[in-house]
Amino acid sequence: MDIMDVNLKLFLPELFVTFLAFAVMIADLVMPSGQRKGLARFGIIGSIVTINIIAINADIKGTTLFGLFIQDSVSIFFKILFLLTGIFILYMAQEYEEKIKNFKGEFHGLILLAVLAMMFLASSNDFISLYVSLEFLAIILYILACYTRDESLSVEAGLKYFVTGALASGFLLYGMAYLYGATGSTEFSSISSILRGKDVNGFLAIGLIFLVVGLTFKIASIPFHVWAPDVYQGAPTPVTALLAAGSKAAGFVILMRVMFTALGSIMQHWILFMAVISALTLLFGNLAAMPQKNIKRMIAYAGIGSAGYLLMGIAAGSALGSGAIMFYLLTYLFAVAGTFLAIVIFYNSEGSDGIDAYAGLSRRSPLLAATLFIGLLSFAGIPPLGGFIAKLYLIASVVKEGLIWLAVIGVLMAIVSMYYFLLVIKRIYLREPKVDTKIKIGAVNTALLYSINIATLVLGIYPGPFTDWVMGIAKVLFLK
Q1: Residue 11, pLDDT above cutoff 90
Q2: What is the pLDDT of residues 338-390, one digit of tens each?
Q3: Opening angle at CA 127, ends 123 and 131, nearest 5
Q4: Strand-pair partners of 64
Q5: SS3 126
Q6: Residue 382, by phi and psi: left (phi above 0), alpha (psi -120 to 50) or beta?
Q7: Among the listed ranges 84-98, 193-207, 342-356, which one has the minimum average pLDDT value?
Q8: Dmax over Cα atoms in the chain, in whole Å?
Q9: 142 close to 158: Cβ distance less than 8 angstroms
Q10: Are the CB atoms for 425 and 373 separated by under 8 Å?
Q11: Cα 94–chain centre separation
Q12: 69-71 and 62-64 as β-strands: parallel, antiparallel, unpaired?
């Protein structure tokens, strides 16, 4: 083994984001507090530069660090997705920072470190690198969740997130240990080769169950879903958006790597298990969202339901299912970005996240109302929005594999989600406002909201180029 088995070109984007995060934190020490909004702008510009670095070096693929790190089409897609998420979150944080007591510029640096951890997760090719990257991300998110430590809800959110995360980490480690004991390897492709044609004994089955249960924490699905509502409600809104879009996508790139690359050769033994988890998650998330009175808490339960839909793609065990997952996460990012930016602007004006506070919003700010209308209906999967096409592909993927019962549950829960999202929209458009004052948005916010809304519509009306792109990428996971 060559100790110099390190190709810096393969993780040049990660090196750049590392430099960017530490530059933001160091600059925070010397900048006056009134000028810290510049740190978010610096992070946004740096993230855009990183996307360009990835695009320029897109043809450079392979493994490095003794096989721990892989750069392929899948990792490139997710890294761009995570960087776009970081750009939206940094912008929201810039708009929200006045609502955080004793705000420090380190908040922006922590967001960039979270994006860095997600990027490493996207390139994990071994259980060792996966676990280190996952814990790196978890620690940062624990800090961000309770960042507004003067508020009891935020402290409660951070504590619940930490305790649940520690328990899930234990399950994950046990699962990895059992799989290592059964195969003698931690590298994904080696595990797949060793398991090919091998019977699944009790030892291996326990490892598989523990591993999947541990990973359900990151995607907020049953059984480790209980943290999501309290954390979404208590965390600062930009952090909630990061959890909704970034953390969920990070969880699914891990699941795709593990289930399709490492455990793909025993796929027939875990498909039903994943289908059952998908169905239970769909049912619980959507039914529990119906009575919620806080918009962030409602979106948390809807996000649990979304994890159920995404798990359909895992249960399908096919390139169609994998491509559908990636397209769903792309559309989900824009729905989250638009919805949460509107929530931040509204909260800055009204100081409330209660659903009842949104009554008559269409008369006070037609653009905010339209953004929530488009974002929430995209979550629900209403045509002609991007969320509709994404759910259609996921349902089609399980139908193709004969899981008709799961597809039926998915369709029924889509109808349920329409109900509780339409209740919010009813308040926005049909209820009288409590006050008549207009909500000021600003030119930059206006341009960004319009852009996000257009992107969500384009993904629904003209999805062809995007679906072709992700379906081509998904095939990489199934190359033997």
Answers
A1: no
A2: 999 999 999 888 878 888 888 889 888 899 999 999 999 999 989 899 999 99
A3: 80
A4: 69
A5: strand
A6: beta
A7: 193-207
A8: 71
A9: yes
A10: yes
A11: 20
A12: antiparallel
Q: How confident is the model at residue 1 (pLDDT cuts 50, 70, 90)?
A: very low
Amino acid at 284: F
Give residue limits of the domains in the chain. Answer: 263-480
Nearby residues of 172 by Cβ (< 8 Å), 6 or more positions away: 131, 134, 210, 211, 214, 215, 217
Per the listing, tokens 């009554």 go with: 359
Spatial neighbors of 430 by CB under 8 A, at least 6 apart, are: none
Sequence letter at residue 40? A
Give the tokens for residue 446.
């206006």
Pull the structure tokens for residue 107. Answer: 């908040």
d(CA 233, CA 223): 20
234 with 145: CB under 8 angstroms?
A: yes
Sign of CA dihedral 390, 391, 392, 395: positive
Q: How many CB atoms lie under 10 A from the CB of residue 102?
A: 9
Residues 381, 467, 217, 117, Cα dihedral to 10° = -130
- Is the pLDDT assigned to residue 308 strictly greater than 90? yes
How far is it, in rounded angstroms, from Cα 125 to Cα 316? 22
Give the integer Cα–Cα distance in Å for 320 and 305.
20
Q: How far is it, in rounded angstroms, from Cα 422 to Cα 309?
A: 20
Peptide bond into 223 cis (omega under 30): yes
Instruction: Identify the CA nearest to 332 among candidates 425, 252, 212, 213.
Output: 252
Cis, bond preceding 238 (omega within 30 deg of 0):
no
Cα–Cα–Cα angle for 415, 417, 420, rounded to 5 degrees: 115
**How would DSSP label each residue in 393-445?**
HHHHHHHHTT-HHHHHHHHHHHHHHHHHHHHHHHHHHHSPPS--PPPP--HHH
Please choose, from the candidates 19, 7, 3, 178, the residue with its C-alpha nearest in 3D space to the C-alpha of residue 109. 19
| Encoded tokens for 37 | 């909004």
Position with higher pLDDT, 223 vs 374:
374
